[in-house]
Amino acid sequence: xxxxxxxxxxxxxxxxxxxxxxxxxxxxxxxxxxxxxxxxxxxxxxxxxxxxxxxxxxxxxxxxxxxxxxxxxxxxxxxxxxxxxxxxxxxxxxxxxxxxxxxxxxxxx
Length: 109
What we know:
CATH topology: SH3 type barrels
CATH architecture: Roll
Strand content: 25-35%
Oligomer: single chain
Number of helices: 2
Mean pLDDT: 91
Radius of gyration: 14 Å
Distance between the termini: 35 Å
CATH class: Mainly Beta
Order of helices and strands: HEEEEEEH
Shape: globular
Helix content: 25-40%
């Protein structure tokens, strides 16, 4: 019998969230050289919890990208320090937060 840990379950949730976001970007994003991109309107930018430079903070997501190699990148600004864009790896996003991004993408899946 396989031992299931909380960490295993958290990673499973994060993986499922990434798969859903990738599908949404492919469906609703713009095809660009190298993959797909979805840009959020200013009044529709989701706010998520993530690590930026090893510090937990609220991030305002401005754009999500999916490369042809199926790599997911999230672009955003720290909520309390707007003006500097960061590239955020999916592994730096707290479990359960990526769903806020997917929910803001206008899609019917």
